[in-house]
Design brief:
This protein is mostly helical. It is built from 6 helices and no strands.
Length: about 180
């Protein structure tokens, strides 16, 4: 994982350098600018994703050979990891195909991960959960949630590259809730 994190950082730098070269070599039209800048934004989300994954690895390494979370929490975390694996596969396909339907699947599925995160917040109430487990459950749950958020952001960037429609400013799930 650590080696992959270093490769992700190198990939990010390479993509940003490629965009800078493109801008230096020609006077790009609006589409070219959109692609160049969106690709830069897309590349910049790779590093935080690697950092978050690295946090998960460090937590697992810290508690090895014992799991960082109690056995009662495993089903929810397994579901979160399955969701993120599926999302990662969809993102790879999306980057290569620029398919709006794949982007929609990723963006609309965000609520599934949000529901799983809500479940993690109830796990510390279980009898077999220690204080350290509580900390690990909450922090690992947030790391996995942020990974999913970055995946949705990447999907929105790819849509923008292809269509010019900026979904990054779409309302989030909480903006339409009246708090009064």
């Amino acid at each position: 994982m650590i080696d992959r994190h270093l490769k992700c950082n190198a990939l990010q730098s390479s993509e940003i350098d490629h965009c800078d070269t493109l801008l230096d070599q020609q006077r790009p039209a609006a589409d070219d600018l959109r692609v160049a800048f969106s690709t830069t934004h897309l590349a910049s989300t790779v590093d935080p994703m690697g950092d978050l994954a690295l946090h998960v690895v460090h937590d697992a390494r810290r508690t090895y050979p014992v799991a960082a979370i109690p056995e009662s929490a495993l089903p929810v975390f397994d579901d979160m990891i399955d969701f993120l694996d599926y999302t990662a596969d969809q993102l790879v396909a999306l980057v290569f195909n620029h398919d709006d339907e794949t982007a929609d699947v990723i963006i609309l599925a965000e609520h599934e991960l949000d529901n799983l995160v809500q479940q993690t917040l109830h796990l510390p109430l279980s009898d077999d959960v220690t204080r350290q487990h509580t900390v690990d459950i909450v922090l690992l749950g947030r790391c996995l949630e942020r990974l999913g958020d970055h995946g949705v952001y990447a999907a929105r960037r790819v849509v923008y590259i292809g269509s010019g429609i900026d979904l990054a400013n779409e309302p989030t799930r909480d903006e339409d809730i009246d708090l009064d």
